[in-house]
Design brief:
Chain lengths: 463, 636
């Protein structure tokens, strides 16, 4: 079964460009758009009571934790006078990417599902909202975006996520086959599936899906923040940088002393993402002799970080040897983490050309405040997760994958309940097939004949 | 009526008198078309080539659906059945399946009486030599005996007879069935018209003499008593019931069979056709599942007045002497006399992507295919297709809208849709797991799903529909009562305790009580005070529907929602000669598959293997852009 054309289902996605911006717009379209929005929105008017083309001020609150996520504007468009021709709600939120992602997750928990590439436009087209010329363009967009995602999934095929999902799906397929075998081939003298072992297996699969789903990187970023190791000499201006960032945002959360006297932890919220800066002590020593103990601490801080920020005093003289040494530290300890080179004290810059011309280095000044906005942008940009097949731990980075895993988990749980409740395999099969389809969406596999083929290749069937 | 000189014109000609041909010819004649059935031998009509059994898992569903639409198979089975079983009763209601063992001779005789006694239906003993066409229009046929007969529609159901080749060990000879000649020339004639053909194989086990079996050493398997009839037209079965017997092969049997492997046509490569994986020969089972030390063998008497016993589970094409030795190594069969060896048969079929959902061929207007010619296996699958083809052949003559069963309406719909969209390379058999809406497509509600359609086609009598309406009314009335009537703890707790269910503390409604695992509608009837409802619940078919509808309401609703979700896509119709090469955004594989299968609707396109989601979206847009696609109201 193909998932695209659940035309009555409610879909949601970020409508503005992914990346940095003062405001993100989340679009919800479909039969339950109003109620999905109302599940999170707290304002003077509820979306379902709002007239078409009206804007409402309020907050988005996590209905479970009751935590306030953001202050938002909600715009209501009623069927058929909307972009898609269905009921549409647009939520404009602050704080860029991660706040938007967090609101999306809440919407997915409250009746919406992630929109497929081009799906809003497709619905608009199907509901007669676009003219013919626009329609031609839509077809091309759909085929090109799916081509892209197809390429991504081909890349994924070599990755661990794909093989993990494939293995899980195979386990469900085996259980499904066992149940179907009992249903379709009961006259063949085959031993029946043991209920308890089936339930045990289903629970184990549920566990695996949960841990996979929990690895969702954006989720972790939302929960734990981005760890930044701030590396530099004492006079490089680390404290001034932190203060400058804090002053700018006025959003300091806490000031917790680090685990060692040499590490300080500062929390700063930029564009809705929490950054935890670890001020390392590793480069305190003079440049000609780096102490082993200091290096150890530094390396520890770098190892635990998501981003390594090298702060260099742009007003001081640097030799080519200094440059090399920094590079060496970055190469040795940062590894796959993205080192970010920052030259401070732009206002009183001088010194060698070595660092000034370094590729990707950012010039800033904590005083003027030259380059601070660019630095913030850069920090946010490199923190938006991308899938890295070479990374050692298995993480989910795509919200659609997360959603598919979550749906698969719920289906398996329902199937296990059916079996425990004494319902026949024909009932459990409904949900197990759904689970297989959800997992299939991740790796691009959904063929209903799988079950029969599996039965034929694994069991002795004879009339 | 059996005739020797056919007329020069018939509305519908049906070729082949097997299970497909019977349904096709009866349906066309009953719908008012002058119909001719051509069979090599009138006394071969309704012959059961293999197992003398009707129904079984998923196949029983098909028989019930055929019956609900006014077909004949269930009635013949009920009339001639000598053992009945409802299979899978320990499992969920979706997989309960009726099966019966019929008296082979009686079945065939009974079928012939129905066919020969049907008005509007002539039967001619002859065969087709040539299919006559003009352009892509069917004109008629020329028969082997030289008759030239014109027609508007023709249903070809030639079974395993097209270039049939039978194998036993190293011996092989032409034939479609034991002692019957094959049909030659038809495949060639159709290939000239542009059809693609393929080759399949199937097999049948040896027959042995009942009087030589030591029955005491086998396990006796009795019939259900009282049996539940297949047909919604029948209240009860009054035939005398006979038992079957179960025994097993053993390691010695397997050793004997292995001796013959080097002479088996399957292993020597003599048989080119692909056999079904679900119904393997005994040599296949021994070879593929070497770790199993026994396979079950059902000994099925073929009738009241015969000693012939069908050795179910021992389908084989090994040399005769090996078969014999193998049989005699089985417990209870030590002294068995073999009446006839088993054999494999290879035959031509036409890959069914060449068909419309009406079973009319895409190439020749008016020409329909049904049964094994479409690559299926099984009497029930054949009969179902025969009925669909016969109905549509008649509708075509009458210039009426085609009749198509949707996947959400019946196994018949699932089967036809699967045949067209999935390129199977083995004979297709029905399984319940093929039906995505399995919980709704039950054998118990085939009448509720399809009988009204049968009535509109003129194949179901008015009284049957009145009965159905009355049943529906009672089901609805009872369900409403159960949902709206609450019961006090004192009134229901004794029942709950007796049934090992936890008692209730406060009043609760009866529908919720019925949802308890161990509580049946029959139990509920004992605590109901309303006389009308009590009476409703005493009626078996009403009680059954009430129980299923109440107990599984949540699942039924979910399946209904799934149907709704996909139903819209079936309404987007694709023009018959749409040129897919025009759409550059389609994937290469998608384009190729769409071109080959030519889906009727966007919904069908989305089910074709190799057609991606984005292909479906792109196709939808292009069809709509070019103004050929009628868009249903999507937003509601």
């Amino acid at each position: 079964m193909h998932p695209t054309h659940h035309t009555r289902e409610t879909i949601a996605a970020v409508a503005t460009a992914v990346g940095i911006g003062g405001i993100a717009v989340i679009r919800i379209s479909g039969e339950h758009a109003l109620s999905a929005a109302d599940a999170l929105f707290r304002g003077t008017t509820r979306a379902k009571d709002a007239a078409s083309h009206t804007v409402h001020y309020g907050t988005v609150v996590d209905p479970v934790s009751r935590e306030t996520i953001d202050t938002v504007l909600v715009t209501v468009f009623r069927d058929p006078h909307s972009f898609t021709g269905e009921d549409v709600v647009e939520i404009s939120c602050h704080g860029g990417y991660f706040v938007a992602q967090r609101i999306l997750v809440l919407l997915y928990n409250n009746g919406a599902r992630p929109a497929q590439p081009g799906e809003f436009t497709l619905r608009a087209f199907l509901n007669g909202k676009l003219d013919l010329a626009q329609a031609e363009a839509v077809a091309d967009i759909i085929s090109s975006t799916t081509e892209k995602s197809h390429k991504a999934s081909v890349d994924l095929l070599t990755g661990k996520l794909s093989s993990a999902v494939r293995a899980l799906r195979q386990e469900i397929l085996d259980i499904c086959s066992l149940l179907e075998l009992e249903l379709d081939f009961s006259q063949e003298g085959i031993e029946l599936a043991d209920r308890r072992s089936v339930v045990t297996k289903l629970n184990a699969i549920q566990q695996s899906i949960t841990s996979l789903s929990d690895s969702y990187q954006e989720g972790r970023v939302i929960r734990e923040g981005i760890k930044v190791a701030l590396v530099g000499r004492p006079n490089a201006g680390k404290s001034s940088l932190l203060n400058a960032l804090l002053k700018e945002e006025r959003a300091i959360v806490s000031d917790i002393p680090g685990t060692t006297r040499d590490t300080i932890e500062e929390r700063v919220v930029l564009e809705g993402i929490e950054f935890i800066f670890h001020d390392t002590a590793g480069l305190r020593e003079s440049s000609d002799s780096i102490e082993i103990e200091g290096m150890k601490r530094t390396s520890k801080a770098i190892a635990g970080a998501d981003v390594v920020l090298f702060l260099i005093d742009g007003s001081a003289e640097h030799s080519a040897a200094d440059h090399l040494r920094y590079k060496e530290i970055a190469d040795t300890y940062a590894g796959s983490k993205r080192p970010l080179w920052v030259l401070n004290k732009y206002d009183i810059r001088h010194g060698s050309e070595t660092f000034r011309t370094m590729e990707n280095a950012l010039w800033i000044s904590c005083k003027t405040p030259h380059g601070l906005a660019e630095l913030k942008q850069e920090l946010v940009r490199i923190s938006i997760p991308t899938h890295d097949p070479a990374s050692s731990s298995l993480t989910i980075t795509n919200i659609r994958h997360k959603d598919a895993l979550e749906r698969a988990r719920v289906s398996i749980s329902t199937a296990a309940e059916a079996i425990e409740g004494g319902l026949g395999g024909d009932f459990a099969a409904v949900d197990l097939r759904a689970a297989m389809n959800y997992l299939g969406e991740i790796i691009g596999l959904t063929t209903p004949d799988d079950i029969l083929n599996n039965i034929f290749s694994n069991f002795c069937i004879g009339k | 009526m059996l005739i020797s000189r056919p007329g020069t014109y018939y509305d519908v000609i049906v070729v082949g008198g097997g299970h497909a041909g019977i349904e096709a010819s009866l349906a066309a004649a009953r719908m008012g078309c002058s119909t001719l059935l051509i069979s090599l031998k009138a006394n071969a009509i309704g012959r059961m080539s293999c197992n003398p059994a009707i129904g079984g898992t998923a196949k029983g569903h098909l028989v019930r659906e055929i019956d609900a639409l006014g077909g004949e198979m269930g009635k013949i089975a009920d009339a001639t059945g000598i053992q009945f079983k409802m299979l899978n009763t320990s499992k969920g209601p979706a997989v309960w399946s009726p099966r019966c063992q019929s008296d082979r001779e009686w079945y065939s005789r009974d079928a012939q009486e129905r066919v020969l006694g049907q008005t509007n239906l002539d039967v001619l003993e002859d065969s087709v030599a040539d299919v006559l066409t003009e352009g892509n229009m069917l004109k008629g046929i020329r028969t082997f005996l030289g008759h030239e007969i014109r027609c508007r529609s023709m249903v070809l159901c030639a079974g395993t007879f097209l270039n049939g080749l039978m194998h036993t060990g190293e011996k092989h000879r032409s034939g479609g069935r034991f002692g019957e000649a094959p049909a030659r020339g038809v495949t060639e004639s159709l290939k000239e018209l542009g059809f693609t053909s393929g080759r399949l194989k199937t097999g049948t086990p040896p027959r042995i003499d009942l009087s030589t079996i030591d029955l005491a050493r086998t396990e006796r398997q009795d019939s259900d008593d009282p049996p539940i009839p297949f047909s919604f037209h029948n209240e009860r079965i009054t035939n005398r019931l006979v038992p079957m017997y179960l025994t097993y092969t053993n390691p010695a049997t397997h050793k004997i069979l292995e001796k013959g492997f080097d002479r088996s046509p399957m292993f020597t490569g003599k048989i080119k056709g692909v056999g079904p994986r679900y119904c393997p020969s005994i040599e296949d089972k021994v070879f593929r599942f070497a770790e199993r030390d026994r396979h079950q063998i059902f000994l099925e008497p073929e009738g009241y007045d015969t000693n012939v016993v069908y050795v179910n589970g021992f389908s084989t094409s090994l040399p005769e002497e090996i078969q014999y030795e193998g049989i005699r190594s089985i417990v209870g069969l030590e002294h068995a006399a073999m009446i006839r060896p088993g054999y494999a048969v290879e035959y031509d079929f036409f890959p069914p992507h060449q068909l419309h959902h009406t079973l009319e061929t895409k190439l020749i207007s008016g020409l329909f295919f049904a049964g094994q010619i479409n690559g299926t296996s099984g009497y029930e699958e054949a009969a179902g297709q025969g009925l669909i083809a016969g109905i549509n052949a008649a509708l075509k003559v009458q210039n009426k809208k085609p009749f198509i069963v949707q996947r959400s309406e019946g196994y018949l719909g699932v089967m036809v849709d699967d045949l067209i969209n999935k390129s199977t390379d083995e004979p297709y058999r029905m399984f319940t797991s093929r039906a995505e809406y399995r919980l709704l497509l039950r054998q118990d509600n085939a009448d509720r799903r399809l009988m009204r359609a049968g009535y509109e086609l003129g194949l179901i009598a008015k009284e049957m529909i009145e009965q159905l309406d009355e049943k529906e009314r009672k089901v609805e009335e009872t369900l409403q009562y159960l949902h709206s009537t609450s019961i006090a703890p004192a009134a229901i707790n004794p029942l709950l305790e007796k049934k090992n269910e936890s008692p209730i503390a406060e009043n609760d409604d009866l529908a919720r009580m019925l949802r308890r695992t161990n509580i049946t509608a029959e139990d509920i009837a004992t605590v109901v005070t309303d006389a009308t409802i009590k009476a409703n619940l005493s009626q078996r078919d009403v009680r059954e529907q009430v129980e299923i509808d109440a107990k599984y309401a949540g699942y039924i609703q979910r399946q209904n929602e799934q149907i709704q979700r996909f139903a819209k896509l079936e309404e987007y119709l694709i023009p018959e000669h749409f040129d897919y090469t025009r759409i550059t955004s389609l994937s290469t594989e998608g384009k190729e598959k769409l071109h080959r299968i030519r889906p009727r609707s966007i919904g069908q396109a989305s089910r074709i293997a190799g057609v991606t989601n984005s292909d479906v979206s792109v196709l939808t847009i292009y069809l709509k852009t070019s103004g050929v696609l009628k868009t249903p109201d999507v937003s509601r």
